[in-house]
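Comment thread on ticket #2218

A.B. wrote:
> Attaching the input chain for the structure job we discussed in standup.
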Amino acid sequence: MSPPRPIPEPAPTILVVDDVDTVLKATTRVLELEGYRVLTARDGIEALEVLQRSPVHAVVSDLRMPRMDGDALAAEVTARWPAIGMVFMTGYSESALRKDLPGPLLQKPFDVADILGALRRVLRHPPRHVARRVAGGDPPGL
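C.D. wrote:
> Ran it. Output below, let me know if you need it in another format.
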């Protein structure tokens, strides 16, 4: 495995969204140890509240949550903040077959290298829907 690329200063801000406390804490810890600034939310509604208050570079979200699930959150994020990349995670095997999400899908439990790699790819490349909108130029920033 190649060494991780250095996190640019200031560190990107990542919003982690999961209703399972242990997953939320573990994911937060992994990302903080890699140098990311991490915000958290326990469902999609709380995530939208965080996004309205704080600039975020990427969202790492569970798919199945109460109140607002990851699919509904993805629709809101891509409509309201199209430059924000997304990574999804799920513990449900049937969801692993899905191809319609606007970002990579990780099967829980996942390796630290998998989430870090997916997040680096999302931060390095604009979401597909943004890349299609930007003809011949760099994707819009935050």
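A.B. wrote:
> Thanks. Noting for the ticket: The chain is about 35% helix and 15% strand.
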